[in-house]
TrEMBL record:
Biological process (GO), any one: cell-cell junction assembly
Signal peptide: 1-21
Location(s), subcellular: Cell junction, Adherens junction; Cell membrane
Summary of the function given for this chain in its UniProt record: Cadherins are calcium-dependent cell adhesion proteins.
Any one Gene Ontology molecular-function term assigned to this protein's record: beta-catenin binding
Cadherin domain mapped to chain residues: 73-153, 154-262, 263-377, 378-482, 482-600
Keywords (A to Z) from UniProt: Calcium, Cell adhesion, Cell junction, Cell membrane, Glycoprotein, Membrane, Metal-binding, Repeat, Signal, Transmembrane, Transmembrane helix
A GO CC term assigned to this protein in UniProt: adherens junction
Transmembrane annotation, as ranges: 599-630
Domain of life: Eukaryota
Protein name (Swiss-Prot/TrEMBL): Cadherin-12
Amino acid sequence: MLTRNCLLLFLWFVFDKGSLSLVRPPGPPLSRSRLGKENPRSLRVKRGWVWNQFFVLEEYMGSDPQYVGKLHTDLDKGESEVKYTLMGEGAGSIFTIDATTGDIHALRSLDREVKPYYTLRAQAVDIDTNRPLEPESEFVIKVQDINDNEPKFLEGPYTASVPEMSPVGTYVMQVTATDADDPTYGNSARVVYSILHGQPYFSVDPKTGIIRTALPNMDREVKEQYQVLIQAKDMGGQLGGLAGTTTINITLSDVNDNPPRFSKSFFHLRVPESSAVGFAVGRIKAHDLDIGKNAEVEYNVVPGDGDNMFDILTSEHNQEGIIILKRPLDYETKKAYTFKVDASNAHLDPRFHSLGAFKDTATVKINVLDVDEPPVFTKPSYEMDVYEDSPVGDIIGAVTAQDLDASNSPVRYSIDWKSDLDSYFDIDPVEGTISTNELLDREHIAQHNITIVATKLSNPVLTSRVAVTIHVLDVNEFSPELAIPYESFVCENAKVGQVIQTFSAKDQDLPQNGHKFSFKPSEKDINNKNFTIRDFGNNTAGIVTLQSGFRRRSQKIYFLPVVIQDSGYPVQSSTGILIIRVCGCESDGSLLTCSAEAIFLPVGLSTGALIAILLCIVILLVIVVLYVGLRRQNKKETLMTSKEDIRDNVIHYDDEGGGEEDTHAFDMGTLCNPKVIKEKLLKENRDLFRRDVKPETKTGKNQLPVSQDSADICNFINQRLKENDVDNSAPPYDSLATYAYEGEGSVAESLSSIESLVVDTNEDYDYLNEWGPRFKTLAGIFGDLLQYCPGPAS
């Protein structure tokens, strides 16, 4: 036990001997937490750096480097045997350390708003061997803030609005200034707000920056825009603090605090009596000092003299009141109207009801102007009835129109021919009685719409029109018939009294009270023991069975006559035939089949099975046909079994010419008359028959050049055609052969500028050289042409 305690004491002495410490320079007092961290017992770490935090003042403007602090180890006996090193953020560039003394200095001014602290690492090594005496440790240098940044309004200038007539203290908006200084140190970032311009209308809270109204009853119609200047000052607003400002543009929004007012109290208007309903008689306007929806005005005619004759609407464009005519005017009846019009706001604000009624009233007088008017019918339209097939000349009815003017002119009547193209009707021009002019048929046209024209005799230009509807009444002339051709079925297991079909009827006649049909069996079929007819009394009837046990093998179809009778006068009737088939059914009455052949089908083989069998047979037949067709196709040999394709061969040469100045790239002699160059062609190309193919064997006849005595191009072509027809070496396809020969014997002579037949040796083209550089190429071409195509003299 004693030995172990001695060993522990020795180890403690060895490790505790080399303790290091950071010496902090004079600075601001440490907080209680920092003091706790600098407790001597807590700062002593075995063989390690003691953690601490240095401070350096920002924006230091001194001439010497700013002293930060000192590093020291207990192993440093002051004999210069220990070297201190510094690493990390800003080491060497911003911070430097004296390797011998451990003093740390800041080489340049620092800005806390750019970087608030720096993390570095320090180590003590042997100055001779560079052997670490202590492990590397980390510490922090914090930049101490000073008040070097003024508050800033990052979102300014601001725009806000507040309703006019708002009470004092109404919230407008809130502004916020930001200070980049350290809010945790001193008052550098403590901002206080104040108003520099905008009083006494608005105020600002010094702490929150909330702007409120400071003056009551601010009227937008007096002043609408306000500009407020707000200041934010740090250091709590104390002397020496930095300040920033911003501008706030405040607009008073409109409220409905003004009623509409007429510019005058009396309006005088005039309107012709011939004006149509809906005509705009005139416009009046009440002005409202408000804007937007608060300035919208509603006009109303006050009940009285003119409320039933006139109405007033509001124009959405300019808020004018448009007086509209509601009913036709008559100067002879009333010559003037006087009434009042109210103008009020559409959207009222209850806060201002105490100010009085938000409306204004004006008087409107409208004088009716006399106009020579057309005749007026006693009714807006007429309706008349006439029986079809009525005799020609029967009077249907009459129309009446009169002149309401003081002159009371006579009226003449006529039918607008466009409304009665077939002249079914006629009208008495004086009395206005309408009569038939043709026999009418309701089944052809059931209703006629004609237009009657009334003309004022004193002024034929003035006419009026009225619509007359003539209904052609039906006469019972058609017999009723079945609505559709009915084909019913009855089950073989049908029971007695069973209704197997319901049917109805139709009639081309159209009685006023509607159709009423009755159904009964035919008297000829009164002894029918199979079926009968039952009338349901609602224009329908049914087929009822009289027996059971129908058999398709004995009788497949039954014909049942039915008598249909209408209720017109005179009574019309007809006999219809109902077809009934006997069918096989399920026990519940659902239809299976009505075909008689189905009786003889094999038992147990359904229709679906038969269809499937037939479909399989068809598929097999299609496969066999396709197989046989493919076999036959494989047996056929194609016409071309080799790789040689017997068709036109187009040989493409990608040779590019030299342009218009290249006069030596081709033989100019090929443009001349073949008679002149006959010897040259016979010498060079005597065995060359075709230019597009090279014959393998020279068994064909040599082609002969054109005879010098040829007189016509036709002979030349026929000669070449015969030679190619008998040429065995010619390929079995068409080829294009070009013959540069114009022919001869034309009265107009050659049209070529090159003169393919004769070249005039006396012609001298040297004058082309005198025409300038543009004709140099042309002169060269003609010079070469004379050289290749000499005339007879050469």
